[in-house]
Specification:
By secondary structure, this protein is α+β, with helices and mostly antiparallel strands. It has helices spanning 2-19, 46-59, 168-179; strands spanning 38-40, 63-68, 73-82, 97-104, 110-117, 129-138, 143-153, 159-164. Helix content is 23%, strand content 33%.
Length: 189
C-alpha cells in the first residue's frame, strides 16, 4: 500500500511540474513600422540633414535629447499631461450609507447605536498621467529610418500603456516637415 502512495505522489509531482514550465519563447506584440517610415535621403550632407530634422522636431514641440552628425542620428522626446487619466476606475469606490445597531446587555440595559458614512477618497483626485512620445530619426547609410513610441505613465512612473507610433500618417507628416525648404538662420552659417 505504501508503495502505491509513493508512485501516485511521484506521478502527481511529475504532472504538476510539467504544468509549471515556462514557454520557450516570449510573445511578440510589436507591430513593424510602416513602409512610409523609411525613405531615401535626399542629400548627402550629414550636418545639413541633422539640422533639418532638429528644426522640424523643435517646431513640433519636441525636446532634442541626442544628436550625432557622423551617424545622422537625432533622438527627441515630448510629453504632456493627460487630464482625468489619473483616476483608476477599476478601484472600489468608497461606501456611503447609514448603519445602526441595537443590543441588550447584562442587567437588562439596552443600547442603540446610529452612524453615517460619507465616502471620499484622495485617489479620486489623483495626479494626472503623462503621455511621453519618444522618437529617433537615423540615416547612416543614405536611408532615413524613423522609430517612435508612445507611453502613458502613472504619476508614480508605472507604464500604464505603451504602443508604437510609427504609423504611415505620422511618418509621412514628419518627412514632409523635414524636407520642406526653410529660411536660413544664423546657426546655418
Amino acid at each position: 500500500m505504501r508503495c502505491w502512495q509513493r508512485v501516485l505522489s511521484v506521478a502527481g509531482a511529475v504532472v504538476l511540474t510539467g504544468c509549471a514550465t515556462s514557454p520557450t519563447s516570449l510573445p511578440s506584440h510589436a507591430t513593424p513600422p510602416a513602409s512610409e517610415c523609411r525613405w531615401a535621403l535626399s542629400d548627402e550632407g550629414g550636418v545639413a540633414h541633422v539640422r533639418r530634422v532638429v528644426a522640424a522636431l523643435e517646431a513640433e514641440g519636441y525636446s532634442i535629447r541626442h544628436t550625432d552628425t557622423t551617424l545622422r542620428v537625432v533622438s527627441a522626446e515630448r510629453s504632456r499631461i493627460l487630464p482625468g487619466y489619473g483616476v483608476n476606475f477599476y478601484e472600489a469606490w468608497p461606501r456611503t450609507g447609514v448603519f445602526g445597531s441595537y443590543g441588550i446587555g447584562r442587567g437588562g440595559r439596552s443600547s442603540i447605536g446610529f452612524g453615517t458614512s460619507i465616502g471620499g477618497g484622495s485617489y479620486r483626485f489623483a495626479p494626472d498621467a503623462t503621455r511621453v512620445e519618444q522618437l529617433s530619426v537615423v540615416a547612416p547609410d543614405g536611408w532615413v529610418q524613423v522609430s517612435a513610441d508612445i507611453r502613458i505613465l502613472d504619476p508614480d512612473g508605472v507604464v500604464r500603456e505603451s504602443r508604437s507610433a510609427t504609423t504611415a500618417s505620422f511618418c509621412s507628416a514628419l518627412r514632409q516637415r523635414i524636407e520642406q525648404p526653410r529660411e536660413a538662420t544664423s546657426w546655418d552659417e
